[in-house]
Amino acid sequence: MDANLKRSVILEHYQNPKNRGLVDDKDYIKINMNNESCIDEINIMIKIEDNIIKDIRFDGDACAMCISSSSIMIETLLNKTLEEAKNILNNFLKMIDEQEYDETVLESAIVYDDTYKQPNRKKCVLLPWWGIEKILKGLENVR
């Protein structure tokens, strides 16, 4: 993907993030994530029905990379089954860690494919994805 297009996608999701704002609903699982090395602190809420991600919301104080990554993650995971979401998550983490991955499942999240070039930005981009990973692993432990 062209570098200018990547920048415009990231900027659009930073300026107009998807599903920013939390809700008061007991049907959501909520997690707080923070990055010890910077300002990023976000709350993530996810609603799962019949093994399908019906909604994800977030809010908090974070940099442009973290906010845009949260928004793109939400857009990518909404209406996916838990298995599809785990596959997307695993491939995203592999991409950020410079391992072999399947780019066809990442949709817009592919804009972060060169994040490895800026190691100080990795945690910013990964923070929301780590939050979803913790929630999904917690669900596995319940079952």
Comma- or semicolon-separated keywords:
Sufe protein. Chain: A, 4 helices, 143 residues, 18% strand, 46% helix, globular, alpha+beta
Multimerization state: single chain
Please bin the fraction of helical residues: 40-55%
General form: globular
Number of helices: 4
* Widest sheet: strand ordering: 1-2-3
The tally of beta strands, per DSSP, is: 3
Weakly predicted, low-confidence segments: none
Distance between the termini: 40 Å
Radius of gyration from CA coordinates: 14 Å
Layout of SSEs?
Blueprint: H1 3-15, E1 28-34, E2 41-49, E3 52-61, H2 64-77, H3 82-96, H4 119-142
Antiparallel strand pairs: 1-2, 2-3
Helix pairs in contact: 1-2, 2-4, 3-4
Brief summary of the model shown:
The protein is of the alpha+beta class. It has 4 helices and 3 strands.
Structure description:
The chain has 143 residues and is an alpha+beta fold. It has a single domain, classed as Alpha-Beta Complex (Sufe protein. Chain: A), CATH 3.90.1010. The chain is 46% helix and 18% strand. It contains four helices and three strands; from the N terminus they run αβββααα. It has helices at 3-15, 64-77, 82-96, 119-142; strands spanning 28-34, 41-49, 52-61. The protein has a three-stranded antiparallel sheet, with helices on one face. Helix 3 (82-96) runs antiparallel to helix 4. The longest helix has 24 residues, at 119-142. The protein starts with a helix and ends with a helix. The model has no long low-confidence stretch (mean pLDDT 95).
